[in-house]
């Protein structure tokens, strides 16, 4: 009897929790008819916001991978004084409120900020410009990628790296032929999460870059702007968001299943487990 | 054949590893775990850099601390086979071998009977197959030296015997200076022409297997070869014989001339057992130890008998004929001419 009660209680709790999470998502997709949602996507606000989001995300993501990958590899494989501090520095933006990030970006890179004088001397004004959106996304989403990449690199068996070196491969060949493929699952997971997080960036962007349609107004900013203006447009973008980010997460799950069934790879599996 | 000369000193946590070795042909380093055996391979391969040392293959200098030379592992021509093989899990057998070098892939796959497994990934291979891939990969790199780290330790006992025979036949054929590291004395003897015993960072003895058996440098080397080592006090007597009073009280004799504190070395297969004291035969009277049999272990066709302070090895048939069993009192006899004495430090 007790066992039955416990099973029922656990089942009920799970059902309530999952329903709680599903309901708002479901409401977003059903509050207006699918026809309305699709037709509202034709609104120029949506098109502009989509373009700004895609462009800034692609640039930010490329820079994140370009700078984040070597950083993560060093943090994962080298022991040096201040390493813990460096890792904490990477983790901090993940947990900081985006509003704090926004203010920080303004006083660092804004016109009156720390580097403002240097930037204006060079004729660069980043704030309220697409460059500001890119900086905000990089600051908020980049650390997510680096943290995942550190875990992924850390899970690569150092003996395989040594084996590669004794087989005549230099550090560069070893990195691209052995380390990156073995850490690949974790790197892809980190990049996908950073992409999803970057697409949704709101607080830091609105403070540092503003919400100028066609320039700095990304999809989340457009939702906020249209919420007062035209609820149908806001709903339509929100529904689009649910579908895009849902697709990113799902494809991540599917590729990781594919990876783990393709090889035994305790190394690859570990890169997920330890992150 | 090329000559690899290795000389270095490397501080370890508990001791200082010091080694000087001239390597041509197949040499095995044997010793208990933690003796620094694997570090020797790491130093030669360039994975560990000792503060003092020199490693050179003929006139190719890989490491010379005095001249500030230290080549990276990829610039030393070593073929290192790791204990757990370190095969790349994301590559096929063929890709693994080709990673070492592309010129001889097909030849090596055929030679190691891997052609049928060329498309398989390491996870799908047995232990013996993995080792063959690791060897083929190391040889594809066209090494000047072959290093094997515990080549048999990761195999189950059934596979181990056949792999040991294969390796023993293969290694001399390769014509490469080869250094094998193992904790198993029998494996070392089976695989290598010369065996070095490494204890706590110190090479106690390096020689052919027979030399280690018949003239062990110290008690540790003797016990590592499987010999009985008994402490005692020796005194030379007339007639070229030395009398030794063992710690257990028995008096035995040896043809070795030595006085003072000694270790007595007798190999288990040089001892015979009998139910009663054997009748005196002409010539030298054998040493005799009369004691109760403590334990008997059957290994294959042989029986290992623990009797008093001694371990004795005899055939299963002999053990059955003598009706030996734990608890039975028997006499162990051994020839004074086969009883070695080593002065104790």
Layout of strands and helices, then pairs:
The complex is a heterodimer of chains A (275) and B (345).
Chain A: H1 2-30, H2 34-40, H3 44-77, H4 83-95, H5 98-109, H6 116-121, H7 130-154, H8 158-166, H9 171-199, H10 203-208, H11 219-229, H12 231-262, H13 266-273
Helix pairs in contact in A: 2-12, 3-7, 3-9, 3-11, 4-7, 5-7, 7-9, 7-13, 8-9, 9-12, 9-13, 11-12
Chain B: E1 4-11, E2 16-23, E3 26-30, H1 37-45, E4 52-57, E5 60-64, E6 69-70, E7 78-81, H2 93-100, H3 105-111, H4 127-140, E8 145-149, H5 157-174, E9 178-182, H6 185-191, E10 194-199, E11 202-208, H7 209-214, H8 219-224, E12 228-237, E13 241-246, E14 251-254, E15 260-266, E16 271-274, E17 287-299, E18 302-307, E19 310-315, H9 316-321, E20 329-334, E21 340-343
Parallel strand pairs in B: 3-9, 3-10, 7-8, 8-9
Antiparallel strand pairs in B: 1-2, 1-4, 4-5, 5-6, 10-11, 12-13, 12-15, 13-14, 15-21, 16-20, 17-18, 17-20, 18-19
Helix pairs in contact in B: 2-4
Distance between the termini of chain A: 40 Å
Please list the strands of the largest sheet of chain B in the order they lie side by side. 7-8-9-3-10-11
Count of DSSP-assigned helices of chain A: 13
Question: What's the CATH architecture name of the largest domain in chain B?
Answer: 3-Layer(aba) Sandwich
Rg estimate of chain B, integer Å: 24 Å
The CATH class of the largest domain in chain B is identified as Alpha Beta
Shape of chain A: globular
How would a crystallographer describe the biggest sheet of chain B?
6 strands, mixed
Q: Name the assembly state.
A: heterodimer
Radius of gyration of chain A, taken over Cα atoms and rounded to an integer in Å: 22 Å
How many strand units of chain B? 21
For the record, the CATH architecture of chain A stands as: Orthogonal Bundle
């Amino acid at each position: 009897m007790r066992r039955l009660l416990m099973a029922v209680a656990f089942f009920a709790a799970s059902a309530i929790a999952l329903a709680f999470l599903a309901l708002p998502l479901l409401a977003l997709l059903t509050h207006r008819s699918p026809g309305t949602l699709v037709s509202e996507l034709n609104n120029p606000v949506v098109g502009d916001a989509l373009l700004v989001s895609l462009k800034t995300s692609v640039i930010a993501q490329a820079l994140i991978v370009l700078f984040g990958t070597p950083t993560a590899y060093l943090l994962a494989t080298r022991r040096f004084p201040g390493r813990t501090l460096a890792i904490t520095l990477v983790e901090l933006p993940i947990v900081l409120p985006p509003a704090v990030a926004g203010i920080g970006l303004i006083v660092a890179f804004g016109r009156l900020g720390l580097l403002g004088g240097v930037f204006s001397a060079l004729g660069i004004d980043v704030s309220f410009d697409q460059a500001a959106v890119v900086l905000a996304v990089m600051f908020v989403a980049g650390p997510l990628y680096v943290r995942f990449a550190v875990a992924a690199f850390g899970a690569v068996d150092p003996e395989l790296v040594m084996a590669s070196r004794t087989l005549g491969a230099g550090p560069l060949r070893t990195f691209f032929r052995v380390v990156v493929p073995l850490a690949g699952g974790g790197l892809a997971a980190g990049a996908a999460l950073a992409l999803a997080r970057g697409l949704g960036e709101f607080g830091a962007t609105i403070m540092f870059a503003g919400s100028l349609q066609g320039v700095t107004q990304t999809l989340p900013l457009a939702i906020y702007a249209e919420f007062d203006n035209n609820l149908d447009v806001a709903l339509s973008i929100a529904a689009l968001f649910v579908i895009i980010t849902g697709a990113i997460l799902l494809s991540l799950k599917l590729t990781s299943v594919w990876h783990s069934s393709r090889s035994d790879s305790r190394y690859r599996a570990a890169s997920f487990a330890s992150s | 054949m090329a000559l690899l000369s290795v000389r270095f000193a490397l501080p370890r946590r508990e001791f200082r590893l010091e080694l000087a070795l001239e390597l041509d042909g197949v040499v095995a380093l044997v010793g208990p775990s933690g003796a620094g055996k694997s570090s020797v391979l790491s130093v030669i391969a360039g994975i560990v850099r000792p503060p003092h040392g020199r490693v050179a293959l003929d006139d190719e200098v890989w490491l010379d601390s005095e001249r500030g030379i230290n080549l990276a592992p990829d610039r030393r021509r070593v073929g290192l086979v790791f204990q757990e093989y370190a095969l790349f899990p994301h590559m096929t057998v063929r890709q693994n071998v080709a990673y070492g070098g592309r010129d001889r892939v097909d030849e090596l796959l055929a030679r190691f009977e891997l052609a049928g497994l060329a498309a398989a990934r390491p996870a799908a291979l047995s232990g013996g197959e993995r080792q063959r891939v690791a060897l083929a990969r190391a040889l594809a790199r066209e090494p000047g030296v072959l290093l094997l780290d515990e080549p048999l330790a990761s195999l189950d006992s059934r596979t181990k015997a056949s792999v040991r025979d294969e390796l023993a036949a293969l290694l001399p054929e390769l014509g490469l200076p080869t250094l094998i590291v193992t904790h198993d004395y029998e494996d070392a003897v089976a695989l290598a022409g010369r065996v070095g015993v490494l204890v706590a960072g110190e090479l106690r003895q390096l020689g052919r297997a027979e030399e280690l058996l018949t003239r062990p440098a110290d008690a540790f080397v003797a016990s590592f070869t499987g010999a009985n080592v008994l402490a005692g006090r020796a005194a030379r007597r007339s007639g070229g014989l030395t009398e030794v009073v063992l710690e257990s009280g028995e008096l035995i004799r040896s043809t070795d001339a030595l006085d003072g504190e000694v270790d007595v070395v007798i190999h288990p297969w040089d001892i015979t057992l009998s139910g009663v004291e054997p009748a005196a035969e002409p010539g030298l009277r054998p040493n005799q130890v009369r004691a109760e049999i403590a334990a008997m272990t059957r290994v294959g066709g042989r029986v290992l008998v623990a009797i008093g302070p001694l371990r004795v090895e005899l055939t299963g048939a002999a053990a059955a004929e003598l009706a030996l069993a734990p608890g039975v009192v028997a006499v162990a006899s051994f020839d004074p001419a086969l009883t070695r004495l080593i002065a104790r430090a």
